[in-house]
Design a protein that fits this description.
Length: 205
Protein backbone atom coordinates (compact mmCIF):
# COMPACT_ATOMS: atom_id res chain seq x y z
CA UNK A 1 0.00 0.00 0.00
CA UNK A 2 1.46 3.34 -1.06
CA UNK A 3 -0.37 6.22 0.59
CA UNK A 4 -0.95 9.24 -1.65
CA UNK A 5 -2.96 12.08 -0.15
CA UNK A 6 -3.20 14.07 -3.39
CA UNK A 7 -5.29 17.23 -3.08
CA UNK A 8 -5.93 16.42 0.57
CA UNK A 9 -2.45 17.78 1.27
CA UNK A 10 -4.00 21.22 0.82
CA UNK A 11 -6.94 20.71 3.17
CA UNK A 12 -7.32 23.58 5.60
CA UNK A 13 -9.84 24.94 8.13
CA UNK A 14 -11.61 27.00 5.46
CA UNK A 15 -12.41 23.77 3.60
CA UNK A 16 -14.46 22.38 6.48
CA UNK A 17 -18.16 22.38 5.54
CA UNK A 18 -19.74 23.43 8.82
CA UNK A 19 -23.27 22.51 7.77
CA UNK A 20 -22.15 19.05 6.70
CA UNK A 21 -20.32 18.45 9.97
CA UNK A 22 -23.32 19.61 12.00
CA UNK A 23 -25.59 17.27 10.03
CA UNK A 24 -23.30 14.27 10.52
CA UNK A 25 -23.72 12.00 13.54
CA UNK A 26 -19.98 11.28 13.54
CA UNK A 27 -17.09 13.09 11.85
CA UNK A 28 -14.25 10.72 10.91
CA UNK A 29 -10.66 12.00 10.96
CA UNK A 30 -7.79 10.23 9.19
CA UNK A 31 -4.45 10.09 10.99
CA UNK A 32 -2.51 10.29 7.75
CA UNK A 33 -3.73 13.87 7.40
CA UNK A 34 -2.02 14.95 10.60
CA UNK A 35 1.14 15.67 8.61
CA UNK A 36 0.16 18.94 6.84
CA UNK A 37 -0.08 21.84 9.36
CA UNK A 38 -3.24 23.29 7.80
CA UNK A 39 -4.95 19.91 8.01
CA UNK A 40 -4.31 19.87 11.76
CA UNK A 41 -6.21 23.13 12.00
CA UNK A 42 -8.99 21.61 9.90
CA UNK A 43 -9.22 18.66 12.31
CA UNK A 44 -9.60 20.94 15.30
CA UNK A 45 -12.12 23.16 13.50
CA UNK A 46 -14.24 20.17 12.47
CA UNK A 47 -14.15 18.81 16.01
CA UNK A 48 -15.24 22.13 17.48
CA UNK A 49 -18.17 22.36 15.08
CA UNK A 50 -19.20 18.75 15.69
CA UNK A 51 -19.12 19.04 19.47
CA UNK A 52 -20.97 22.36 19.45
CA UNK A 53 -23.74 20.55 17.56
CA UNK A 54 -23.78 17.64 20.02
CA UNK A 55 -22.08 15.30 17.54
CA UNK A 56 -19.17 12.91 17.97
CA UNK A 57 -15.71 12.78 16.41
CA UNK A 58 -13.70 9.67 15.51
CA UNK A 59 -9.99 9.36 14.75
CA UNK A 60 -8.18 6.49 13.10
CA UNK A 61 -4.46 6.24 13.85
CA UNK A 62 -3.90 5.04 10.26
CA UNK A 63 -0.35 3.71 10.47
CA UNK A 64 2.24 2.71 13.05
CA UNK A 65 4.82 5.07 11.56
CA UNK A 66 2.29 7.89 11.68
CA UNK A 67 1.84 7.17 15.39
CA UNK A 68 5.61 7.15 15.89
CA UNK A 69 5.77 10.67 14.43
CA UNK A 70 2.84 12.17 16.32
CA UNK A 71 2.39 10.05 19.45
CA UNK A 72 2.23 12.97 21.89
CA UNK A 73 -0.14 14.94 19.67
CA UNK A 74 -2.49 11.98 19.17
CA UNK A 75 -2.59 11.38 22.92
CA UNK A 76 -3.40 15.05 23.42
CA UNK A 77 -6.30 14.79 20.96
CA UNK A 78 -7.66 11.94 23.06
CA UNK A 79 -7.10 13.57 26.43
CA UNK A 80 -8.35 17.05 25.58
CA UNK A 81 -11.57 15.54 24.14
CA UNK A 82 -10.94 16.63 20.55
CA UNK A 83 -11.92 13.05 19.62
CA UNK A 84 -14.46 10.73 21.23
CA UNK A 85 -13.81 7.49 19.33
CA UNK A 86 -10.44 5.93 18.47
CA UNK A 87 -9.74 3.30 15.81
CA UNK A 88 -6.41 1.46 15.80
CA UNK A 89 -4.90 -1.89 14.99
CA UNK A 90 -2.82 -3.76 17.54
CA UNK A 91 0.50 -2.43 16.20
CA UNK A 92 -0.67 1.19 16.21
CA UNK A 93 -2.00 0.87 19.74
CA UNK A 94 1.26 -0.59 21.05
CA UNK A 95 3.13 2.24 19.36
CA UNK A 96 0.79 4.82 20.89
CA UNK A 97 1.59 3.61 24.40
CA UNK A 98 5.21 2.66 23.66
CA UNK A 99 4.92 -0.94 24.73
CA UNK A 100 5.56 -4.30 23.09
CA UNK A 101 2.83 -5.89 25.21
CA UNK A 102 -0.63 -5.70 23.69
CA UNK A 103 -2.46 -6.29 26.98
CA UNK A 104 -0.61 -3.35 28.53
CA UNK A 105 -1.61 -1.15 25.59
CA UNK A 106 -5.25 -2.18 25.97
CA UNK A 107 -5.09 -1.44 29.69
CA UNK A 108 -3.70 2.02 28.94
CA UNK A 109 -6.49 2.66 26.45
CA UNK A 110 -9.04 1.53 29.01
CA UNK A 111 -7.83 4.30 31.31
CA UNK A 112 -8.62 6.95 28.69
CA UNK A 113 -12.09 8.48 28.64
CA UNK A 114 -12.77 7.36 25.07
CA UNK A 115 -14.46 4.61 23.06
CA UNK A 116 -11.77 2.47 21.44
CA UNK A 117 -12.11 -0.08 18.64
CA UNK A 118 -8.95 -2.11 18.11
CA UNK A 119 -8.54 -4.65 15.31
CA UNK A 120 -6.40 -7.73 15.88
CA UNK A 121 -6.21 -9.25 12.39
CA UNK A 122 -7.75 -12.71 12.08
CA UNK A 123 -8.67 -12.69 15.77
CA UNK A 124 -11.27 -9.97 15.23
CA UNK A 125 -11.43 -6.85 17.35
CA UNK A 126 -11.71 -5.45 20.85
CA UNK A 127 -14.12 -2.70 21.84
CA UNK A 128 -12.65 -0.88 24.81
CA UNK A 129 -14.30 1.48 27.27
CA UNK A 130 -13.52 2.25 30.90
CA UNK A 131 -16.31 -0.08 31.95
CA UNK A 132 -15.74 -3.09 29.70
CA UNK A 133 -13.68 -4.74 27.00
CA UNK A 134 -15.61 -6.74 24.40
CA UNK A 135 -13.85 -9.31 22.22
CA UNK A 136 -15.64 -9.80 18.90
CA UNK A 137 -14.39 -12.47 16.47
CA UNK A 138 -13.64 -11.92 12.80
CA UNK A 139 -16.01 -13.27 10.18
CA UNK A 140 -14.80 -16.41 8.42
CA UNK A 141 -13.64 -15.95 4.83
CA UNK A 142 -13.06 -18.30 1.91
CA UNK A 143 -9.74 -16.81 0.82
CA UNK A 144 -7.55 -13.90 1.88
CA UNK A 145 -6.61 -11.89 -1.22
CA UNK A 146 -5.74 -8.29 -0.30
CA UNK A 147 -5.90 -6.61 3.12
CA UNK A 148 -5.89 -3.08 1.67
CA UNK A 149 -8.83 -1.18 3.10
CA UNK A 150 -9.61 -3.66 5.88
CA UNK A 151 -9.22 -1.09 8.64
CA UNK A 152 -11.25 1.53 6.81
CA UNK A 153 -14.06 -0.92 6.08
CA UNK A 154 -14.05 -2.04 9.70
CA UNK A 155 -14.44 1.58 10.79
CA UNK A 156 -17.20 2.11 8.22
CA UNK A 157 -19.21 -0.84 9.50
CA UNK A 158 -18.62 0.08 13.13
CA UNK A 159 -19.66 3.69 12.63
CA UNK A 160 -22.70 2.69 10.58
CA UNK A 161 -23.92 0.76 13.58
CA UNK A 162 -22.92 3.40 16.12
CA UNK A 163 -24.66 6.20 14.23
CA UNK A 164 -27.84 4.10 14.32
CA UNK A 165 -27.59 3.49 18.08
CA UNK A 166 -26.67 -0.18 17.81
CA UNK A 167 -24.97 -1.79 20.80
CA UNK A 168 -21.16 -1.96 20.74
CA UNK A 169 -21.02 -5.69 20.00
CA UNK A 170 -23.23 -5.24 16.95
CA UNK A 171 -21.12 -2.29 15.82
CA UNK A 172 -17.99 -4.45 15.97
CA UNK A 173 -19.75 -7.27 14.14
CA UNK A 174 -20.75 -4.87 11.37
CA UNK A 175 -17.14 -3.70 11.15
CA UNK A 176 -15.85 -7.26 10.99
CA UNK A 177 -18.37 -8.16 8.30
CA UNK A 178 -17.44 -5.18 6.13
CA UNK A 179 -13.72 -5.95 6.53
CA UNK A 180 -14.31 -9.60 5.61
CA UNK A 181 -15.79 -8.53 2.28
CA UNK A 182 -12.97 -6.22 1.21
CA UNK A 183 -10.09 -8.58 2.03
CA UNK A 184 -11.40 -11.28 -0.32
CA UNK A 185 -10.68 -9.33 -3.50
CA UNK A 186 -8.17 -6.81 -4.83
CA UNK A 187 -8.99 -3.19 -4.11
CA UNK A 188 -10.26 -1.17 -1.18
CA UNK A 189 -13.88 -0.75 -2.30
CA UNK A 190 -16.58 -3.34 -1.58
CA UNK A 191 -17.84 -5.38 -4.49
CA UNK A 192 -21.00 -6.46 -2.68
CA UNK A 193 -23.71 -4.46 -0.95
CA UNK A 194 -22.64 -4.22 2.68
CA UNK A 195 -26.21 -3.45 3.72
CA UNK A 196 -27.36 -6.66 2.04
CA UNK A 197 -24.57 -8.62 3.76
CA UNK A 198 -25.58 -7.16 7.11
CA UNK A 199 -29.18 -8.19 6.54
CA UNK A 200 -28.14 -11.70 5.50
CA UNK A 201 -26.21 -12.05 8.76
CA UNK A 202 -28.98 -10.73 10.98
CA UNK A 203 -27.29 -7.36 11.44
CA UNK A 204 -29.61 -5.13 9.41
CA UNK A 205 -29.10 -1.43 10.11
Amino acid sequence: MNTFLGACQNLGPDDVDADLVRASAITYLEGYLWDPPAAKQAFVRASEIAHAAGRRVALTLSDQFCVDRYRAEFLELIRNKTVDILFANQHELKSLYETSDFDSAVAALRNEDILGAVTVSEKGSLVVTRGETLAVPAYPIQKLVDTTGAGDLYAAGFLAGLSRDQDLKTCAQLGALAASEVIQHVGARPQRSLAAMASENGLGV
